[in-house]
Amino acid sequence: FYAPAIEAPLRAVGRIYRQAGLTDADVDALSGRELGLAVAEAMIELSRRVGFPTTLGQVSGFTNDHIARALAAAKDPQLRMKLQNMPVPLTAEMVDEYMGSVLLAARDGDLSLVKNVP
Q1: Strands in the chain per DSSP E
Q2: Is this prediction's pTM over 0.70?
Q3: 95: Cβ–Cβ under 8 A, 6 or more apart, which residues?
């Protein structure tokens, strides 16, 4: 959900992935969510090629409790400024919907689960 806010760095990384043969996507022609998805898919392909897990669900010992703890920690009032200083600022009330969608997508390997902040 950060892609619209960090397009220049995503394009730079996407070009590297393309040169390495990890994507056929023309990252210079993409923007927003489509750019983010193309780079994410290339990152997943790199992990696949080197034999790393491509989802959190493939990590030994990972459970949904890890997601619950991560979301609870992100809503800690002492971390409010960290949420507000992210490329796409969030409030504690937004954490479950938006950060939660990223963690569920990472767990399942389903990038369509990621929600963008309007």
Answers
A1: none
A2: yes
A3: 71, 74, 75, 83
